[in-house]
Design goal:
Layout: H1 4-9, E1 15-19, H2 27-30, H3 33-43, E2 48-52, H4 64-80, E3 88-92, H5 97-107, H6 112-116, H7 119-124, H8 131-134, H9 136-145, E4 151-154, H10 159-176, E5 185-188, H11 214-222, H12 241-249, H13 252-263, H14 268-294, H15 297-325
Helix pairs in contact: 4-14, 5-9, 5-15, 9-10, 11-14, 12-14
Length: 334
């Protein structure tokens, strides 16, 4: 078996990033992983794959209409914010059935005990776990290994899944006595923690949706937890979620003014008003394109189908080679 460095060099650089369409794009996405996604597509044009992991979202949105709308919403946001379809292949997980076939093959190389050691599976607990959720790490490995991605853009909570995929790739190469898969590397993204309305890491429940109606933005910003101090008392901007979010979406000069006013006793009510204005101004360059894309679902579907066709070709070649090496009559080789 070839050394790990030789295996990696045998495959062209290919990056995969992905998200489940279970929540709208919020500020945590925009200033977290998304900034890294845009950089990756510049460094790897044509070899960056943006996966809409709709099969992984079945536990959350089993209703077809909800899942379809969420998929269109996520894709529209990615495009509006700067992911370029000339550099990045967008596709739906469910449009590449070879990945699911590959997952079934890979599942025979790993024990249930191995899967249960993956932190996300262990945290779910046996009472909340479905057979589908138990197979989540295997399917994610197939998502990565099907198109033979060499780099996976992953946040902190996904690193264990990439390592799981790497172990599966090594086992498969050894079992098949051929280097079919690269050993994927992790490219950590979203390292910057963006605070939500409760001060903890922003997620769906405490998030501020970038393209939400102004009325919703007002409500979410009004609900940001702040310190219990007098309205006109001096405040520390470094310890306030409102000021930290303002730093992300505002201009340097306006934020410097906000910091100065905080120390002079600016009220939280006024600070929240300024945050609202800053978010509305920040999103303005992206908003028209986002809403125009949302109004053209057929355009989004065409983009996803075209991307899936390219990924499907890669995944099918991978699967065919594995079946051939395993001695199955359906394997056509490469």
């Amino acid at each position: 078996m070839a050394a790990a460095c030789d295996i990696h060099e045998a495959f062209p650089p290919r990056v995969i990033c992905g998200a489940r369409p279970t929540q709208a794009v919020h500020l945590g996405h925009v200033f977290g992983a998304f900034e890294d996604f845009r950089g990756l597509q510049v460094r790897h044009p044509g070899e960056t794959f943006a996966l809409i992991a709709d099969l992984h979202a079945l536990d959350a949105r089993f209703h077809r209409r909800n899942l379809e709308l969420a998929t269109h919403e996520l894709t529209s946001a990615w495009l509006a914010l700067g992911l370029d379809p000339r550099r990045t292949l967008f596709y739906r997980q469910s449009d590449v059935p070879a990945v699911m076939e590959l997952a079934l093959v890979l599942a025979h190389l790993v024990s249930v005990a191995d899967i249960e050691r993956v932190p996300a599976v262990r945290a779910a607990g046996p009472q909340r776990r479905t057979a589908g959720s138990l197979l989540y790490p295997v399917v994610m490995a197939a998502d990565i290994l099907g198109p033979r991605a060499t780099v996976v853009a992953a946040g902190r909570d996904q690193i264990a899944h990439v390592e799981f995929a790497r172990r599966l790739a090594r086992r498969a190469n050894r079992a098949l006595e051929e280097v079919v898969f690269p050993l994927p590397q992790t490219r950590r993204v979203g390292e910057t923690v963006i605070p939500g309305t409760d001060g903890r890491k922003m997620c769906g429940e405490n998030g501020i949706r970038l393209f939400a109606p102004v009325s919703e933005l007002q409500e979410r910003i009004r609900g940001i937890v702040t310190a219990t101090v007098g309205a006109t008392a001096p405040k520390d901007p470094d310890c306030c979620t409102v000021a930290r979010l303002h730093a992300l979406v505002s201009t340097t000069d306006r934020h410097a003014e906000l910091r100065e006013d905080y120390r002079a006793g600016l009220s939280f009510e006024e600070a929240k008003r300024r945050l609202l204005l800053a978010i509305v101004e920040f999103r303005a360059p992206f908003e028209e394109r986002y809403h125009s894309l949302r109004a053209e679902p057929d355009t989004i579907d065409d983009l996803l189908h075209n991307g899936a066709a390219a990924v499907r070709e890669e995944a099918e070649k991978t699967l065919e080679r594995i079946l051939a090496l395993a001695g199955m009559t359906g394997g056509k080789g490469m």
